[in-house]
Design goal:
With 201 residues, the protein is mostly helical. It has 9 helices and no strands.
Length: 201
């Protein structure tokens, strides 16, 4: 009787080890993809997202016969990181946002990834403001606001959304700071133009 039990546990253990390694590769590729976005290297970012997709697929395939292992948490975290990276690329590029089924992740992972992707836009927004690209900064702020407006309508228990309320609250704080930064920069630009206009008169 013990042998079949050990065989089942051995198979689950092997699947877990394969999936853990693949999830780590997923997370690393996603982090590098987001950094590439901020460095204005969209081609590199998309390549890294593709690498993350392949690694995540390997993890999902390994755990498919072992759902009790899949729900341990590390697969959800990798799916969330993948969603964040892919959605960050899409938000910065102004592309339509794929839903969770299109990218092959759980809904809770997608929602939390979207919240973190919108928060990532703050860094990109500040970089654009420093570069004098005010219109671009305002466009990114609108994208952040649109994401927040969507997420606050998702009012379900944390057990279903993976703690989305906390992620939404964090995004709200980031959004408020970003709105203040954009407003200050726009007002400074207007003042500068007014001063220059007066000097030329």
């Amino acid at each position: 009787m013990a042998e079949p039990l050990r065989a089942e546990l051995d198979a689950a253990h092997r699947a877990r080890e394969v999936a853990l390694a693949a999830c780590r590769r997923t997370v690393r590729a996603c982090g590098r993809a987001i950094r590439a976005v901020h460095r204005l290297e969209p081609g590199t970012a998309r390549e890294l997202v593709a690498d993350a997709h392949a690694a995540l697929g390997e993890a999902q395939d390994a755990l498919r016969p072992h759902p009790h292992v899949a729900f341990a948490g590390f697969l959800h975290d990798a799916e969330k990181e993948y969603a964040e990276a892919l959605l960050t690329v899409a938000l910065v590029a102004g592309d339509p946002l794929p839903d969770h089924q299109e990218i092959g992740v759980g809904l809770a992972a997608w929602l939390n990834g979207l919240a973190e992707a919108a928060s990532e836009l703050r860094r990109h927004l500040l970089d654009r403001l420093r570069a004098g690209e005010l219109d671009r900064g305002e466009h990114l702020l609108v994208a952040m606001e649109d994401v927040y407006d969507l997420l606050v309508t998702i009012d379900y228990p944390d057990a279903l959304t993976g703690g989305l309320r906390r992620a939404s609250d964090a995004l709200r704080a980031v959004l408020e700071r970003s709105r203040a930064d954009v407003t200050t920069t726009v007002l400074q630009a207007r003042l500068q133009r007014a001063i220059e206009s007066t000097q030329q008169a």
